[in-house]
Design brief:
heterotrimer, A alpha+beta (178), B alpha+beta (299), C alpha+beta (152), A: 178 residues, alpha+beta, DNA polymerase, domain 1, 5-stranded mixed beta sheet, 6 helices, globular, B: 299 residues, Uridine Diphospho-n-acetylenolpyruvylglucosamine Reductase, domain 2, Enolase-like, domain 1, 3 domains, 5-stranded antiparallel beta sheet, 28% strand
Chain lengths: 178, 299, 152
C-alpha cells in the first residue's frame, strides 16, 4: 500500500499522517482523527452533510482527497465552540429549533459560517441561495434560515477555535451539538 | 464506497503534468475540481490507476486582462469568477453565469477548465464559451495548440482535448460597442444542471440594428451548440421588431433533442424557444441600457 | 428509460433487414464486443465493454433477436449485468420503404439499476442515444460494403 505524507491544521491543531491517495478528507477527519461531527450523507457531493471549511472556503469533504488538503487549514463543527460556549451559529440552531434529527446540521453550520464571513447581514434570499448545497429532510428549512438570521444578529464573527489553538480533546468535552 | 487505489501525483508545472499523462497513458486521469470525477470514482464507474492533480500548478489559476481580451486559467474556480471585481466590470456575464452553477461548495472547488473539458451536455460554461467566441489553449507532448470553442465540443462528454493534453487557459475577446450578453437557464431543481440554458450576445449599431449576434444552447442535446440559423436571422434587423421571435422559433433547428424522465424531447424543444427569446431580450436590454450583461435562473 | 428514434439507410428494405440480423454485422457494430455467440433461437451470449469519458460501461448477458418478420420488423431483447447493476430492455424495430431507401424506426424501454443508473441517470439517455447512433452508422457502412461486394 502506497501512502503519502500529509500535514494539515485541523481546528487549530497540527496533524501529520501518512495516508493512501484514495482516502477522502471526510474519512480522514472521521476515521483517523475521530472527528465524527462531519457526516457522510449522499456520498456523491450533493447533500452537503460533509461540508467543512478548507482554507477558509466551504467544501464537500467527500469530494476532496485528504492528500489534496495537505498543507491546508481545516475547520470542522468540533472547532466552532470556544471555551465551552456554543458559537452563535450553534446557539442559533438551538434557539430557533433549526434541527430535528441533526444529521445535516454540521454541514449547515459550516456553510452558513462561510456565508456570514463574507456577508454578515444577509437577506433571506441570500441565506437560501447560500444553503443550496445543503439538504435537510426534516425542518423544511424555515427554522434553519431563522437560525442563520439569529447568528447574524448575535455576533457570528466571534472567532471559532480555528484561530484559538485549542486541543481537539478539549473541544470534544465541550459537547458540541449536531 | 471507497475508490480503487491509485497513484497520486501533484505536478507543480504544466510540463510535468503533461509528462505524467504521456508516461501513464490511458490509465491516468486529470483531477481538477473533482465534482464530476470523484463521485464516479467512488462508485467505481471509472477506475484510473494514476491521478494527476492540477490543483498545485499556480500558472493554471487566475484572471488576466490585456489588449481587450480576458485570459482565465483553466484551474480558476467558479467562485473566483463569481466574485471577480475585474470581470464584473469588464465582462459581467461571466460572474453572473458562475453564480448559477451548482451550489457554493461546488463553486468553491469546481473549475472553468474542468467544466469545459468534461463537456457535460448540461454544463453552463460550454454555452457561455460558445457565445463569447472563446479560444482554448491546450498543451500536450507535442506543444501548444489553440482551439476555438466552435470546434471544442465534439460529442456527448467529448471535447477536443486529447488524453495526453491539458487545457491551460481560455481567452475571451471582450466585445466592445453597444453589446449585451445574457445567459438564461432553466435549472433542474435538484441537480442545478441546465435542463436548457441559452447564452446570447447581441451587438447593435446606433440605430439599434443588430450588427452581430451569437447564440449558444446547452442542455438540449448531446453537447452545447451554436444556433447559427437564428444568429443569421437577427443580423441586419431591428431587434425591437419581430426578429427575436422568429430567431427564437428557429433556435432548436439541427438539435437532436434529449428526452428523459424529467423533460421530454418536445418539452426541451419548447424550452429552447422560450429561453432563446428570454436570453435575447435580456441581451438587448443590456445592450441598450449599457449595463452589459444579465444572467438568470428559473427552476 | 425510453428510447425512440429512426435512421434512414440508403439501401432496399430486404438488404437492411438481412444486415441488421446478420451475426457478422452485429459483431462488428455492437460497441466493444468481447463475446457474441449464438446459442440458438436468436439468442446470443454477449459481453460488451465500452467507455465514455473514462466511465466504463460493461454488459454481460444475453441479446435475443426474436419474432422476425422479414423484411418488416423484429424485436430485440437484452438482459444481463450492466456496470455493477442490472439491465433489462425490450425494443421493437420496424422497417419502412422510403423510395429506394429504408427508414428504420426503433422504440424501446429499458430498466436499468445499479450505480451507473443512480449517479448517471441524467446521462443515460444521451449515452444510449449515442450508442444507437453509432450502431446504425456502422450498420450503414456494413450495408454499403455488402452492396458493393454484390455489385462486383
Amino acid at each position: 500500500m502506497v501512502t503519502y505524507p500529509i500535514t494539515m491544521t485541523v481546528n487549530g491543531t497540527d496533524r501529520t499522517d501518512a495516508v493512501e491517495g484514495r482516502l477522502l478528507l471526510v474519512d480522514y477527519l472521521r476515521n483517523v482523527l475521530g472527528l465524527t461531527g462531519t457526516h457522510v450523507g449522499c456520498n456523491t457531493s450533493q447533500c452537503g452533510a460533509c461540508t467543512v471549511l478548507l482554507n477558509d472556503q466551504a467544501v464537500k469533504s467527500c469530494t476532496v482527497f485528504a492528500v489534496q488538503a495537505s498543507g491546508g487549514i481545516v475547520l470542522t463543527i468540533e472547532g466552532m465552540a470556544t471555551d465551552g460556549k456554543l458559537h452563535p451559529l450553534q446557539q442559533g440552531f438551538w434557539e430557533e429549533h433549526g434541527l430535528q434529527c441533526g444529521f445535516c446540521t454540521p454541514g449547515m453550520i459550516l456553510s452558513s459560517y462561510d456565508l456570514l464571513k463574507h456577508n454578515p447581514d444577509p437577506s433571506e434570499v441570500e441565506i437560501r441561495h447560500a444553503l443550496e448545497g445543503n439538504l435537510c429532510r426534516c425542518t423544511g428549512y424555515q427554522n434553519i434560515v431563522k437560525a442563520v438570521q439569529y447568528a447574524a444578529r448575535n455576533g457570528v464573527l466571534s472567532v471559532p477555535a480555528e484561530e484559538s489553538a485549542q486541543t481537539v480533546g478539549a473541544q470534544e468535552e465541550n459537547g458540541v451539538a449536531g | 464506497m471507497i475508490t480503487e487505489a491509485f497513484e497520486f501525483h501533484t505536478p507543480e508545472d504544466v510540463q510535468s503534468a503533461v509528462a505524467l499523462l504521456s508516461e501513464h497513458g490511458p490509465e491516468a486521469k486529470v483531477l481538477a475540481g473533482g465534482h464530476s470525477l470523484v463521485p464516479l470514482m467512488r462508485l467505481r464507474l471509472t477506475t484510473p490507476s494514476v491521478i494527476v492533480d492540477l490543483n498545485r500548478i499556480p500558472q493554471l489559476c487566475g484572471i488576466t486582462t490585456e489588449n481587450g481580451s480576458i485570459t482565465i486559467g483553466a484551474m480558476t474556480t467558479h467562485a473566483t469568477i463569481e466574485h471577480s471585481a475585474e470581470l464584473k466590470a469588464m465582462l459581467p456575464v461571466l460572474p453572473a453565469a458562475a453564480t448559477l452553477i451548482g451550489d457554493p461548495m461546488v463553486r468553491n472547488r469546481g473549475t472553468i477548465g474542468g467544466s469545459l473539458v468534461h463537456a457535460d451536455p448540461a454544463g453552463d460554461w460550454p454555452a457561455v464559451a460558445l457565445a463569447l467566441d472563446t479560444q482554448l489553449q491546450l498543451v500536450g507532448p507535442h506543444g501548444e495548440r489553440t482551439v476555438r470553442a466552435d470546434d471544442f465540443f465534439v460529442d456527448l462528454l467529448t471535447s477536443a482535448v486529447e488524453p495526453d493534453e491539458i487545457l491551460t487557459n481560455i481567452t475571451i475577446p471582450v466585445p466592445t460597442g453597444r453589446v449585451g450578453i445574457s445567459y438564461q437557464k432553466f435549472a433542474h431543481p435538484a441537480s442545478g444542471y441546465a435542463v436548457t440554458g441559452v447564452a446570447a450576445m447581441v451587438m447593435l449599431d446606433d440605430a439599434d440594428v443588430c450588427i452581430d449576434s451569437r447564440i449558444a444552447i446547452t442542455g438540449a442535446g448531446a453537447m452545447a451548440v451554436r444556433a447559427a440559423e437564428s444568429e443569421a436571422m437577427l443580423r441586419g434587423t431591428d431587434l425591437n421588431g419581430g426578429s427575436i421571435d422568429h430567431a427564437a422559433e428557429a433556435a432548436g433547428s439541427g438539435i437532436d433533442f434529449l428526452g428523459d424522465i424529467y423533460a421530454s424531447e418536445e418539452y426541451r424543444e419548447q424550452l429552447v424557444r422560450v429561453y432563446t427569446k428570454r436570453s435575447l431580450i435580456a441581451a438587448l436590454r443590456a445592450a441598450t441600457s449599457g449595463h452589459g450583461a444579465e444572467a438568470a435562473k428559473t427552476i | 428509460m425510453k428510447l425512440t428514434g429512426n435512421y434512414t439507410m440508403k439501401a432496399p428494405r430486404a438488404v437492411v433487414f438481412d444486415t441488421l440480423m446478420s451475426v457478422d454485422a452485429l459483431r462488428s457494430c455492437l460497441p466493444g464486443v468481447e463475446k457474441f455467440e449464438h446459442t440458438g433461437d436468436g439468442r446470443y451470449e454477449t459481453r460488451l465493454r465500452a467507455g465514455l469519458a473514462g466511465v466504463k460501461g460493461e454488459f454481460a448477458g444475453t441479446i435475443t433477436l426474436r419474432d422476425p418478420v422479414p423484411p418488416d420488423s423484429y424485436t430485440l431483447a437484452m438482459e444481463g449485468n450492466f456496470s455493477g447493476g442490472f439491465v433489462s430492455g425490450l425494443g421493437s424495430i420496424r422497417l419502412e420503404d422510403l423510395g429506394a431507401q429504408t427508414r428504420v424506426e426503433y422504440s424501446g424501454d429499458a430498466q436499468v439499476s445499479g450505480p451507473l443508473a443512480s449517479v448517471g441517470q441524467r446521462l443515460m439517455a444521451p449515452a444510449a442515444k449515442m450508442v444507437v447512433g453509432k450502431f446504425f452508422r456502422c450498420m450503414e457502412a456494413q450495408i454499403e460494403s455488402r452492396t458493393n461486394a454484390a455489385g462486383r
